[in-house]
Amino acid sequence: MSERNDVPLRRLNIHFFKPFGESMRQEVAVARIVLGGWVFLSFGVPLLIFLFGLGDPSGLGASFLTRSRFLGFPLHYWLLAQGCTFGYVILCKLYCDLWDRRLRRPVPVPVNKRRR
Amino acid sequence: MSRLMRLLWTAVLWLGGSGLAQASAGEEIYSILPGFKPVPALIMISLLALYVLVGVFSRVSSTSGYWIAGRGIGKFGNGAAIASDWMSAASFMGVAGLLYLKGWFGLGYIVGWTGGYVLLLALLAAPLRRFGKYTVPEFLGDRFDCHSVRVLGAVITILIALTYATAQFKGIGLICSWIFGMEYSTSVLISAAVVCAYLLLSGMRGVTRNQQIQYVVLISAFMIPLWWLMRQAGGAGVLPQLEYGSLLSGLLDGKVASGTLGGEELAHLRRDYLPWGGGNLYQFIALVFTLMVGTAGLPHILMRFYTVKNEDVARRSVLWGLFFIGLLYWSSPVYATLGRFWNPLGGREVADVIILSAPERAGLGLPFIGYLASGAMAAGLSTVAGLIVAAASAVAHDWYASIFKPNCTDKQALSVGRMVTAILCGVVVLLALNPPALIAQIVAMAFALAGNTLFPVTVLAVWYSGSNKYGALAGMIFGLVATLLAMVGWVAEIPLFADGGLLPATSSALLVCPASFAINILVSNLTRGRLDATSEERMEEVMGKLHQLPEDLTDEVVTT
């Protein structure tokens, strides 16, 4: 990369929130989708359980989520024990698939020409 | 169990001094005899011999083979290796006990330890592979073009690896003393000799091959008893991971093996299984977040991505690694729930022996107990191996071959690597023989440490070109100091750092990790003008490699 003399070096500005180039833009877009799912599963689900449980005077968080049953489980238990963990595996699968779909096909040169 | 035997058993466990198993647990749940057990011992010895043989046959002669397995590892193989790197003796035996004790709140550990892999995949796995060198400190040192960053990264890697590995040896020693009837210290020495032998002979390639075998042993040993146990609990015994749901629902109504609970006992049980009986929302989120960023910052896991053929395999191997880890974490709650079903109000004594006593209860006989112990042993060995390789590479590669003697030959670097591996094994054994009092807690803090130091600096190194060496140093030092402070404050029982406080030592990352990000960014921006041109050029070269930028940057780049 030494022959980049025509480009002012200090202007290389890589930023997760300001991606440039088709390939990096796609990579960040895929990462954002997956991280969105991650935030929902990791923090959204516990928050929902908390919000629904606010009505429980004992403070233990009993709600319709703890009373309803899913596959035989109390729903609040299933959501974390299997819902979230299985969700993470699916998010990883989604990441790999989205990557294949968006970044594997021929992208206009020169941004992607060095791939493999 | 006679009184004498119980006394003996207590003595063995006391010598172990571990949180994994404590003293006599009540005959009906725990009745494994002390002393030498020929059949389990034979099974364990053959498996150990197999590990060493695999190590010998995958012997390597180059440094890249030693540290990163010559990059020949595929997605299933690397996935299994990630999983067995990850699954320690503690998570093999401890997570079910944790879930038994803490009920719903304990699920935070499962969520935290699986969710971290999503972070790792989305932010770090592929760029780290594209960087294409050996270790995490090396990545940081090259990216920031600074030896201080490299050394600090290496120091943190060693700190994490040593504490974590010490705890593994305690588990391994315990299992050996259980099977061979040896004293704790003898079994630590013998198991250390095994780890050392195959680490030295083979380096990462042997470790990786072994980890694949070890994964199969540990996951099958973990899952097989469940079918028998489920049938004994009145289930169909087809898919225990789904069948335990109805048992769990029954628990909330007080239905257990001995009949129906009521009054005080039912209230106790409901408290454990309703969401906030074990802690509040803040504590839950803080725990989950800390374990996640900790997972994504553990050096021996990050190093796994250098061992694969290409970045595509790096991505797929996270997927498979997480799936393989999921198999264990989908099964642990089954043990916990069955434990509650048979013994609804047991304390720590029952929790600690849930896994070890399971085959006994399922009537699977002595050979299977040997197999289960070998599984737990495999879990411990593979984690220790991964950790020691990570720590040894931090010294031999990042300090010796990069800073101390940059012109050394491949052969010299390799022999230093082997020497350091042996020395580190020795240090870990010394620590394991005289374990510091609060080792279990210190291990929990290894996650906080990784999440507060290595995770922020690595993410910014990849995704923010403005981050420079001053910012990296400031962020890492802040994370290190804050983690140690929280640890000291916790030991000194200062309320702020206690379990219910704002900054609990084991869950400190919810506040410290974002602060470490912020400090890194802030200091980097304040010191922007202080870098010289060559240094900046070198940093940009690494950034270009991480993001596969073309050599002739297009107009688009310049205008953005």
How large is the radius of gyration of chain B?
24 Å
Gyration radius of chain A, in Å: 22 Å
Structure classification of chain B: mainly alpha
Specify the helix fraction band of chain B.
Answer: over 70%
Number of helical segments with 4 or more residues of chain B: 24
In the predicted model, the low-confidence regions of chain A spanning at least 5 consecutive residues are 1-10, 106-116
Mean of residue pLDDT values of chain B: 78
Strand content of chain A is: under 5%
Q: Assembly type of the shown chains?
A: heterodimer
Major sheet strand order of chain A: 1-2
Question: What distance separates the N and C termini of chain B?
Answer: 75 Å
How many E strands of chain B? 2
Main sheet of chain A? 2 strands, antiparallel
Query: In CATH, what is the class of chain B?
Result: Mainly Alpha
Helix content of chain A: 55-70%
Helix count of chain A?
A: 3
CATH topology of chain B, which one?
A: Sodium/glucose cotransporter
Q: Mind telling me the CATH superfamily name of chain B?
A: Sodium/glucose cotransporter
Task: Tell me the greatest interface.
Answer: A-B, 68 and 69 residues
- How many E strands of chain A? 2
Task: Explain what the structure shows.
The complex is a heterodimer of chains A (116) and B (560). Chain A has helices at residues 22-52, 64-67, 75-103, and strands at residues 69-70, 73-74. Chain A has 116 residues and is mainly alpha-helical. Chain A has a domain at 24-103. Chain A has a two-stranded antiparallel ribbon with strand order 1-2. Chain A is elongated and about 55 Å long. Chain B has a single domain, classed as Sodium/glucose cotransporter (Up-down Bundle). Chain B has helices at residues 3-16, 38-57, 63-68, 75-86, 89-102, 107-131, 136-144, 147-180, 184-232, 240-252, 263-273, 281-297, 299-302, 311-342, 348-352, 354-362, 365-404, 410-433, 439-452, 454-463, 469-491, 509-526, 533-546, 555-559; strands at 255-256, 259-260. In chain B, helix 2 packs parallel to helix 17, helix 4 packs across helix 9 (184-232) and helix 6 (107-131) packs antiparallel against helix 14. At the A-B interface, helix 1, strand 1, strand 2 and helix 3 of A face helix 6, helix 10, helix 11, helix 12 and helix 14 of B.
